[in-house]
UniProtKB/TrEMBL annotation:
Cellular location(s): Cell membrane
Recorded GO CC terms: plasma membrane
Residues that span the membrane, as ranges: 6-26, 38-60, 66-96, 117-139, 163-188, 209-230, 250-272
Membrane topology label: Multi-pass membrane protein
Name of the protein: G-protein coupled receptor 4-like
Transmembrane found in the keyword field: yes
UniProt KW Disulfide bond keyword: yes
Any one Gene Ontology molecular-function term assigned to this protein's record: G protein-coupled receptor activity
Residues of the G-protein coupled receptors family 1 profile domain: 17-270
Organism, as annotated: Microcaecilia unicolor
Keyword set, alphabetical order: Cell membrane, Disulfide bond, G-protein coupled receptor, Glycoprotein, Membrane, Receptor, Transducer, Transmembrane, Transmembrane helix
Highest taxon of source: Eukaryota
Matching InterPro entries: GPCR_Rhodpsn, GPCR_Rhodpsn_7TM
Length: 288
């Protein structure tokens, strides 16, 4: 009941919010700023997730019985993980670029151009697509459960090769980015304290952005990555997978659902942080 209600609320609120913020931020792509480019990519990733969310909701409402076939199951699974990888990669890259802009603006000026932002965005999407596609095709997508239901990505225990793949990916694309984010946050804080050229308003905006990214990582993505990593370690060490899967089944579903809250929080954060978004919304409302 929690999962279905949670997915429904996210979809109903996040879809119009993401579309509204995407429309409001579109004119900023014509400026020389890089951050709007990365922000638009995160919003596009959210819309992909929201497009797949109704299928997951239908699966849960039908008591975890998948009726759309193996190809659709693989596609939905790939989209969910694509959103996860895109979010992690882009947020980490934003943090690194913020540090470069604050700490080494002249030395790495070539990285702060719109051309570089588009090229790096394309590269990050390619990496995310490769990872999500590999994971989706490695895990058996569609099968029959003991109660004669068609399952979708519910393989217990997970195959050893997939467990190894998922554990390595979690280390390289979650735990390592967490470390990078923590280092970037500390370095930016130190640089801002020693800089007299950065105005107080800009200093607060940069600090708020980095704090949001760190909390976003820890609260939304942390629990599901920890649970999945533990499951993979148990499989690789040959432990009692049955008891572990039984114990972590519900927490795994809940933490995965919570990670999808990112589709709602990102546009809310943008609306709170970028005055230009509110200005365009107010101007359009006043004009109508």
């Amino acid at each position: 009941m929690f999962v279905t209600s949670f997915y429904s609320i996210i979809f109903i609120l996040a879809l119009p919010l993401n579309c509204l913020v995407l429309w409001a931020m579109a004119p900023q792509l014509k400026t020389e700023q890089c951050l709007p480019v990365y922000a638009m990519n995160l919003l596009a990733s959210n819309l992909l997730l929201l497009a797949a969310l109704p299928f997951s909701l239908a699966y849960v409402l039908q008591n975890y019985h998948w009726t759309l076939g193996a190809a659709a199951c693989t596609l939905v699974h790939a989209v969910f993980f694509l959103h996860l990888f895109v979010s992690v990669l882009f947020l980490t890259w934003i943090a690194v670029m913020r540090y470069v802009a604050v700490g080494h603006p002249l030395r790495f000026s070539a990285l702060q151009t719109t051309r570089c932002s588009y090229l790096s965005s394309a590269a990050l999407w390619l990496v995310a697509i490769a990872l999500s596609s590999t994971g989706a095709f490695m895990l058996p997508s569609h099968g029959q459960t003991n109660s004669n239901r068609s399952s979708c990505f519910e393989t217990y225990p997970v195959p050893r090769d997939y467990a190894l793949f998922h554990l390595v990916v979690s280390i390289l694309f979650y735990f390592l980015p967490c470390l990078i984010l923590g280092i970037m946050y500390l370095l930016i804080q130190r640089t801002l304290r020693g800089s007299s050229s950065v105005q107080a308003v800009e200093r607060k905006r940069i600090t708020t952005l980095l704090a949001f990214i760190v909390m976003y990582f820890a609260v939304l993505f942390g629990p599901c990555h920890v649970i999945w990593s533990y499951r993979c370690i148990v499989v690789l060490l040959g432990g009692d997978t049955c008891s572990v899967e039984k114990t972590l089944s519900l927490p795994g579903q809940v933490t995965l659902a919570v990670s999808n809250l990112s589709a709602l929080l990102v546009p809310v954060f943008y609306m709170a942080s970028f005055k230009s978004i509110w200005q365009r919304i107010r101007c359009h409302t006043a004009g109508t």
